[in-house]
Design goal:
The protein is an alpha+beta fold. The protein contains 9 helices and 6 strands. Helix 2 (21-31) crosses helix 5 (79-92), helix 3 runs antiparallel to helix 5 and helix 4 (68-74) crosses helix 5.
């Protein structure tokens, strides 16, 4: 990676706010004693994946839903917010990172989520791309381990050497996630665009304050 690109993708942004004091402190705490960038990337990925609970019922009209520091403070986020947080933590320790967006087909969403979305196609799924010196790697720290257990899906690992995108199958071999359209990568979360598009595509899901009721983990238990 050229020096100018490295400087760009380790710089703070409005939503990938890697200069936020809480983000910096958390990144340093999690990677203390890990000098190898790949080891740091794995530690940060696994923390965002498991310590930040996945919630598809967030307030998609609230810009904070897409901001790394807000997701960290809440301990809850949906895919784009979690991807932004992972990118911010990586940037805070000098690992170039950016956001990617793709449309995915979700074969095992809960009935309530499918009803709210109105389709099994989820537009603008967020993932993170990082560069450890050998080109961009894709990682999706979306589904926390406890939710995976409820859904009967193996936890998605990231080894710092190859892409880690959403699981194509569950533990019984049934289709789980598939990528349909890749919308590319971005220096920062295009939050205004996402707010508009999510409202247009999923009006029943995008209500002020977020959709109230049971969490996805509670739904997956039943």
């Amino acid at each position: 990676m050229q020096d100018s690109h490295r400087t760009l993708f380790t710089s703070p942004a409005e939503f990938i706010d890697s200069d936020h004091e809480r983000v910096i402190a958390e990144a340093r705490r999690l990677t203390a004693g890990a000098a190898d960038p790949a080891a740091r990337a794995r530690l940060l990925h696994d923390h965002v994946r498991d310590a930040i609970r996945y919630d598809p019922y967030r307030d998609f009209l609230d810009p904070g839903t897409y901001r790394a520091s807000a997701v960290l403070a809440a301990g809850i986020g949906y895919c784009v917010g979690k991807a932004a947080l992972y990118a911010a933590l990586c940037r805070a320790v000098g690992i170039p990172a950016r956001i990617g967006l793709a449309d995915v087909r979700n074969h095992l969403a809960t009935p309530r989520l499918l009803e709210a979305v109105g389709t099994d196609v989820f537009a603008y799924h967020g993932y993170t791309e990082i560069d450890l010196g050998r080109g961009w790697l894709k990682a999706s720290p979306t589904f926390n381990v406890s939710l995976c257990q409820r859904l009967g899906v193996a936890v998605l690992p990231f080894d710092g050497e190859s892409d880690a995108l959403l699981q194509p199958y569950d533990e019984q071999g049934r289709s789980f996630m598939s990528y349909i359209v890749d919308h590319g990568s971005f220096f920062d979360v295009p939050a205004k665009f996402l707010i508009r598009e999510m409202s247009r595509l999923y009006p029943r899901l995008c209500v002020p304050g977020g959709l109230r009721g049971s969490s996805m983990e509670q739904e997956a238990r039943s």
